[in-house]
Specification:
The chain is of the alpha/beta class and 420 residues long. It has helices at residues 2-44, 55-60, 70-78, 107-117, 137-144, 181-184, 199-217, 242-256, 294-301, 304-309, 315-323, 406-417, and strands spanning 98-103, 127-132, 150-155, 229-233, 236-238, 260-264, 280-283, 290-292, 332-335, 341-343, 384-386.
Length: 420
């Protein structure tokens, strides 16, 4: 009997010890969850938000391929926050050209384009939307410091930078480089050159396409906008006369150039500063400071399947190579013969974001702004000179690759359906 009693006592003590260990482990896990939650909350809730956004609206636009994480849910909500500086600029001009600045994570570049925008004539009349590819605190703080116009931030909630351990980010089961999926038992579809996806590279095209669908069809501030929207990037220096010039070009486009789908602030050749002619110029659309209206967006959106399946990770090369040629007629853009915006970045989007590695001369730019660049320098009575035969990517070009994974094609198409 004594032996049995001692055995029961040992069992009881052992159970108490196991319970204590389990409680301790659960307590640690709960603490870690709370700490992580608080960290994310402090990261993304820098604005006080008392909107009416509810989870059903968010669920309605979640791509079917993805399940959200805490950060993506929070960024969805953050995208509903009204523009800042409404107290300083309560009314927008009726003929406004909305400006969209899309950025990644190059703070020094962003500071330069923001400083240049602060000197643009007419900037206070319009809305500036800053579209972030993911969430980066230093980039966020720079935008929060803007005081020269209404400004709204949106954050791509399905960026690979938001999903660090699964698609559209990188997962342990993903194929890499030229892995054989069968031999390596990994996931992924290689591009036409046998290379598997790189999340940092494909985010270029994903962000642009998500941004376009969101700005034109998803935001309350712009989904009913009838005019033009101007798109610029974080490594574009904008001259003081840029806004007035793009207003003029948008107005003249249909009258002066029926084949012109867009208006541009700069030549398609990024190193060119313009011909300095007393005339307007019609050429292929450039990727520095381009503006178009909803009619053109609808034509682009109708070509979603071609855009999403073309094996090139560059959005602009995809547009030049497959989307524009599919329109069935020449696609031109109208611009002045003197640039109103310049590309100053010396390297690609995903390089140069560290201060000691920034791709600029001594971390700064030296762009001359002459008196003629401070006021509108386009004349409505100018004739149009058209470049009939233009160099560049033509229909039939197969693409540079980097966009072969079927999952990227499907996610891209899901973005096209978000607001339809």
């Amino acid at each position: 009997m004594a032996s049995c009693k001692k055995g029961r006592m040992k069992d009881s003590a052992f159970r108490r010890l196991v319970s204590l260990v389990l409680i301790t482990v659960l307590g640690v896990i709960l603490l870690l969850v709370l700490l992580r939650t608080n960290t994310i909350s402090s990261l993304i809730n820098s604005d006080t938000y008392e909107g009416t956004e509810n989870i059903e609206i968010i669920d309605a636009i979640i791509p079917k391929l993805l399940s959200q994480n805490e950060l993506s849910v929070s960024l969805h909500k953050k995208n509903q926050i009204p523009p800042r500086n409404l107290d300083l600029f309560p009314k927008l001009a009726k003929d406004r050209v909305v400006i969209v600045l899309y950025v990644h994570n190059r703070p020094q570049y962003l500071q330069i384009v923001i400083d240049s925008l602060s000197h643009v004539e007419g900037i206070s009349e319009t809305l500036l939307i800053v579209s972030h590819d993911g969430y980066f605190e230093e980039m966020n703080k720079i935008v929060e410091g803007i005081k020269f116009c209404q400004v709204k931030q949106i954050f791509a909630p399905y960026s690979p930078h938001i999903f660090s351990d699964r698609f559209p980010g990188a997962s342990l089961t993903d194929c890499k480089d030229k892995d054989d999926p069968v031999e390596k038992r990994c996931e992924g579809t290689p591009d036409q050159y046998g290379n598997h996806r790189s999340p940092k590279i494909v985010s270029l095209k994903h962000h642009w396409w998500w941004m376009m669908n969101t700005v034109w069809d998803g935001l309350g501030e712009t989904r009913h906008h009838a005019g033009h929207i101007l798109f610029i990037e974080e490594d574009h220096f904008i001259y003081p006369n840029a806004y007035r010039n793009i207003q003029l070009l948008a107005e003249l486009k249909s009258k002066k150039c029926p084949d012109c789908y867009a208006a541009n602030l700069a030549p398609s050749e990024v190193k060119s500063r313009g011909e300095q002619w007393d005339s307007l110029v019609a050429e292929r659309m450039g990727n520095v400071g381009y503006a178009f209206n909803r009619t053109v967006w609808r034509k682009i959106h109708n070509k979603a399947a071609g855009f999403c399946s073309f094996d090139d990770y560059n959005w602009d090369i995809t547009m030049w190579s497959t989307v524009y040629p599919s329109f069935g007629s020449p696609v031109y853009t109208l611009r002045g013969s003197r640039t109103s915006a310049v590309h100053f970045g010396k390297c690609g989007l995903h390089q140069g974001h560290k201060r000691n590695l920034a791709c600029m001369d001594n971390g700064s730019v030296n762009i001359a702004v002459d008196e003629i660049d401070k006021v509108a320098n386009i004349k409505p009575d100018w004739e149009v000179r058209k470049y009939e035969n233009q160099a560049g990517y033509q229909a039939g070009f197969k693409g540079w690759g980097g966009w072969g994974d079927v999952r990227d094609h499907e996610l891209c198409m899901e973005f096209a359906k978000m607001y339809v």
